[in-house]
Amino acid sequence: MALTTSPANDLPLLNTWQRGFPLCPAPFDVLGQALGRPAGDVIVACQRLQAAGVLGRIGGVFAPGAGGAGLLAAMAVPRDRLEAVAAAVSRHPGVSHNYERENALNLWFVATAATPAALEQLLAQIEQDTGLAVLRMPMLQPYRIDLSFDLAQRSAAAGGTTRGAALPVAPHEAGLAALAEQGLPLVSRPFDAWAEALGWRTEHVLDALSRWLAQGTLSRFGMVVRHHEVGYTANAMTVFDVPDDEVDACGARLACQPGVTLAYRRARAAQWGYNLYCMVHGQERGEVLALVQQAAQRAGIAHHRREVLFSLRRFTQRGPRRFAAAPAAQEAPHA
Fold first, then answer.
1. Which residues of 14-42 are buried (b: 16+ CB within 10 A; e: fewer)?
2. Which of 51, 94, 155, 237 has its CA 20 to 30 A from that of 316?
3. Mean pLDDT, 10 residues at a time, over the chain (335 residues)?
4. Cα 92 from Cα 282, distance rounded (Å)
5. CA torsion sign, 92 to 319 to 205 to 220?
6. Euclidean distance between the first and the last CA atom of the chain, given in angstroms as a whole number
7. Number of neighbouring beta carbons within 10 Å of residue 318
8. Which residues contact 247 (CB under 8 A, 6 or more apart)?
9. Are the C-beta atoms of 275 and 292 separated by less than 8 Å?
10. Residue 335: what pLDDT?
C-alpha cells in the first residue's frame, strides 16, 4: 500500500473521493454515510491530512484550456546556487511546482497566471532576479492531464485520455474558479462559505461546478493528494523527440499505458529538442524505469531519442493560480 504517512482507515477516504466529491450543501455528511463515520470525524480526518501535507486541498482540477495561462519552465543552475535560485523561484505565488531533476537543466517548475502577459512578466522577473535564462515549454496538446492516484498500488495507473478542448470559464464565474483552485474550507457546509464570499446563492455555486464537470471545464472535483506524502517518491519525467507529424498519434497511445499519469505535447525549446512528455509516479526507481520502457515500447516510440529525468528534490508543490487575479465577489449567474 502506497499510503505510508497516515492511518489505514484514511485510505478509503482519500482513494474514493479524489473525484466525484459530493456537490451538495453538506458533502461531509455524504462522505460520513459512505464510510460509516460521523461527518465531524471525516472533517477532523481531512484537517489532520491537510496539516500533515498528505491532502493538498479539496477542490477543482481544471482542464487545459479552461482559462488563464501556464507553462513548464526549466533552468540550468550552477550547483552552488541551486538552493538559492530555487528559493527565489518558489517565492513567486504563480509557481505551483518546483523540482530539482537529474539533468544539466536541473531546475524545473510550472508557472501559472491569469493572463499570458502576467505569466511572461513572472518569468522575466525570475530571469532578472537570478541572472539565468528560463526555457519556456508551453503545452501544445494534452493527451492525459488528470493526476489522481490509486493509493493501494505501487505505481499510479493511467485512467484513459484527456477529453478534447475544454470550454473556458466565463469571466463572471472566474471568482468561483479562483476558490476552486484554492480549495474548500473544511467545515460542515463549505459551499455556503464560497457562496457568501461571492455574493451568490449556494445552489448557484453547486450548479456552476456541476456544469463545469459536465462540459469538461473541470477534469475532476475532489481530494488532491500530494504524491510524495502518500509514498510515490520515485517520480520520472520522460521526454521524447518524436517527428511532429507522428506526435499526436504517439501521444494518444502513450497516455493509455499503465503507470503513465501525465502525457502531453510541448513546444520544443532552444537546445532542448523534445516535444512529447510523460510522467510516471512510483515507489521504486527500477519499477519506474521498467514502466517507462514498457510504455515507450507499447506506444511505438522506444526507438526515438529520449531522456528520463527523475526528481531529486521538491522545493514547491501547491495549487495553480490561473484565476487568482479574479475579484472575490461577482454577479451571480442567472438561475
1. bbebbbebbbebebbbbbbeebebebeeb
2. 155
3. 56 90 98 96 96 94 91 98 98 96 98 95 97 97 76 53 75 96 97 98 98 94 82 88 98 94 95 96 92 97 98 92 62 46
4. 29
5. positive
6. 45
7. 15
8. 141, 265, 275, 276
9. no
10. 36
